[in-house]
Specification:
This protein is α/β, with parallel strands linked by helices. The chain has a domain at 12-186 and 224-230: NADP-dependent oxidoreductase domain (TIM Barrel). Helices cover 38% and strands 17% of the residues.
């Protein structure tokens, strides 16, 4: 059974491949348990996804020790004032049925809430033992620097959309320079990569699917953890089966050249920051 390697950031050790539950409102505990039994040790959820109860139930049903599982959840942009933030964390833990999460993220920035207040609430959750580590999602580099400066506890990750069709080289470099892991969501561009000719061509040499090649491309950039999502047991197992091959430098360059101006898939109007492109 393949097990993902670990990535290090500011004292944290993060499994480099996660099982994502975004957009899987119908996700069941059996999907989460299947992912854990297939070798995943990093489960990503959020208050906004509505999947926390299934994640918690799946963790318990898997038979895998809780201490071996890295669980991430997020506080939504509507709840970034300190009191709302604390309530959201309590609700997440109750829904998960867990005493703590391994990683707590601010899900999206919110311009009308003072960032210092939000970062203080994030740090407080860690100091209370409700989360082991903290980070942010969907921040641009300027926002990330402000968050780092204002948070009394070290941030370990920026979660951002990242896949071959989206040029995130500036963000990847920024995370590396600051000692953070970039956690890639939508690593398969919400299905847009599955028929890509370049990924298919490279995959044929290794007996791998375009998805496995795309995930491997992310993994070989050491500061990236990928969060693919699926409710299909065979696909769940397939996505993690990518540690027995290595892309050559030319493969990495060919895949990197796939970036395109319309590559981004998550760009909510009124909520998205000015992206670093």
């Amino acid at each position: 059974m393949p097990i993902a390697p670990m990535l290090a950031a500011h004292g944290a050790r993060i499994p480099a491949l996660g099982f994502g539950t975004s957009g899987l409102g119908y996700v069941r505990a059996e999907h989460v348990a299947a992912a854990l039994k297939a070798g995943y040790r990093h489960i990503d959820t959020a208050r906004k996804y509505g999947t926390e109860p299934a994640v918690g139930e799946g963790v318990r049903a898997s038979g895998i020790p809780r201490s071996d599982i890295f669980v991430c959840t997020k506080v939504s942009h509507e709840n970034l004032h300190a009191d709302d933030f604390a309530r959201s964390v309590d609700e997440s833990l109750a829904a998960l049925g867990l005493d703590y999460v391994d990683l707590l993220l601010v899900h999206w920035p919110e311009k009308n809430t003072p960032l210092a207040e939000t970062m203080g609430a994030l740090a407080k959750a860690k100091r209370q033992g409700l989360t082991r580590h903290v980070g942010v999602a969907n921040f641009n580099i300027t926002m990330l620097d402000a968050a780092i400066a204002l948070c009394p506890e070290p941030l370990i990750t920026l979660q951002a959309e990242c896949h071959p069709y989206l040029d995130q080289s500036k963000v990847i470099a920024a995370c590396r320079e600051r000692g953070l892991v970039l956690t890639a969501y939508c690593p398969l561009a919400r299905g847009r990569l599955k028929d890509d000719a370049v990924l298919s061509d490279i995959g044929r040499r290794f007996g791998k699917t375009p998805a496995q090649v795309a995930l491997r491309w992310l993994m070989q950039q050491n500061m990236i953890a990928a969060i693919p999502r699926s409710s299909n047991a065979a696909r769940i197992a397939e996505n993690i089966d990518m540690f027995d091959f290595e892309l050559a430098d030319d493969d990495m360059r060919r895949i990197g050249a796939l970036k395109r101006p319309n590559g981004r898939t998550a760009n909510p109007v009124g909520r998205a920051p000015i992206w670093d492109t």
